[in-house]
Amino acid sequence: MQCLLHVSKHAIQAIIEEFNDILSLSKFHTTEILKEVFAKHNIEVEEEIIQEISNSVFDKNPVLVTTSEKGTLSTDYRRNKYFREHFSIIEPTELLYDRTSKKAFVYVSVNQVIELLLNRAEFLEKLVFTEESTPGFYKTFQDGSYFKQNEHFGEQELSISLALYIDDFELCNPLGTSKKIHKITALYWVIFNLPSKFRSTLHSIHLALLGKTSDVKQFGYEKFLSPLLKDLKSLEQTGLFVQTLNNYVKGSVFCVCADNLGAHALAGFQESFNVKNFCRFCVTNRGEIATTAISDFLLQLNNENVPHVNGVKSECVLSKHLSYFHPVTGFPPDILHDFFEGVIPVELSLCLKKFISKGYITLDRLNSLITSFPYKYSDRVNKPKAISKSNVEKGNIGGNGHENWTLLRFLPLLIGKSIPEQEPA
Question: What is the pTM of this model?
Answer without folding.
Answer: 0.76
